[in-house]
Amino acid sequence: MLWFSDMNTGVFGFTEAQEMYRREIRSFLVREIAPAANARAKLLSVRTAVDAIHNCLLIHGQVGYSTELPIEQRLRNVIGLGIGNGTTDIMKLIISREILGRESLPY
């Protein structure tokens, strides 16, 4: 039963990520580019999706990892989303640079 509360919380996180993406698309269309905000939206959406799929795997047990259900394929796809256009570590670096300033980071 605790998984349902986690998944419900994850749905709200996914909704928040969708709203962040919408804001970033609007700002991109008017030529206001904010790399850190884009990185936050990507990082939140990938984390939320991985958590939701992981909870599905826990609910289905061993069958969730088999090829009978598409859950394991979805997990690989979502992890791949975290790699495209910069890994999640790069996204964290971009966010940190905005918070701390470019000169405070070693690279």
Report on the architecture of this protein.
The protein has about 110 residues and is mainly alpha-helical. The protein has a single domain, classed as Butyryl-CoA Dehydrogenase, subunit A, domain 3 (Up-down Bundle). Helix content is about 75%, strand content about 0%. The chain has five helices and no strands. Helix 1 runs antiparallel to helix 2 (about 35-60), helix 2 packs antiparallel against helix 4 and helix 2 (about 35-60) crosses helix 5. The longest helix has 28 residues, at about 1-30. The chain is elongated. The relative contact order is 0.13.
What order do the SSEs take from the amino end to the carboxyl end, as H and E? HHHHH
Classify the secondary structure makeup into a structural class: mainly alpha
Shape: elongated
Number of strands: 0
Q: What percentage of the residues does DSSP assign to strands (E)?
A: under 5%
Count of distinct structural domains: 1
CATH class: Mainly Alpha
For the largest beta-sheet, the strand count, sense and barrel status come to:
none
* Low-pLDDT sequence parts: none
Cα radius of gyration in angstroms = 16 Å
